[in-house]
């Protein structure tokens, strides 16, 4: 899949386990595997191995993902007992990338270039849709900044994206 396929359009499917090499643009670390899930009646990726198991888009960290769509929706099944984390690298319309970690922490921690946002009461052990308004996420966590692009996306720890 060419990285240019991610640009434009109302939506983009980035976690697609179809095809002979579905993770060709992803940097995959630790135990991540493609498995059949009865609940969704199809194949999914399974990350299960603590902090070392993760999937990062793009594989080449020097390249930009550059998604401009206003919403990010992830369909995930978070482990009942293991940690879960989502890392986003965002640019606003005036500055370079800032990091935003969304995980199961108790309270938010914010600096000018990085923020950790608690995911709150994420339901575990069932498939859910995590929906993020990128403009609101950027403005709320980076002093009113305006969302520009999503530069990279990392899903880690124990989940099925």
Characteristics of this structure?
161 residues; mainly beta; 7-stranded mixed β-sheet; 3-stranded antiparallel β-sheet; 1 helix; 12 strands; 5% helix; 43% strand; globular
Helix share bin: under 10%
Q: Quick one: biggest sheet?
A: 7 strands, mixed
Q: What order do the helices and strands follow? A: EEEEEEEEEEHEE
Topology, number of strands: 12
Radius of gyration: 15 Å
Low-confidence stretches: none
What does this structure look like?
The mean pLDDT is 77. This protein has one helix at residues 134-141, and strands at residues 26-29, 32-37, 42-47, 54-57, 71-78, 84-92, 98-103, 109-110, 114-118, 127-133, 147-157, 159-160. Strands 1-4-11-6-7-9-8 form a 7-stranded mixed β-sheet. Strands 10-5-12 form a 3-stranded antiparallel β-sheet. With 161 residues, it is mainly beta. Strand 2 and strand 3 (42-47) form a beta hairpin.
Write the layout of secondary structure elements.
Layout: E1 26-29, E2 32-37, E3 42-47, E4 54-57, E5 71-78, E6 84-92, E7 98-103, E8 109-110, E9 114-118, E10 127-133, H1 134-141, E11 147-157, E12 159-160
Can I get a quick summary?
With 161 residues, this protein is mainly beta. It has one helix and twelve strands.
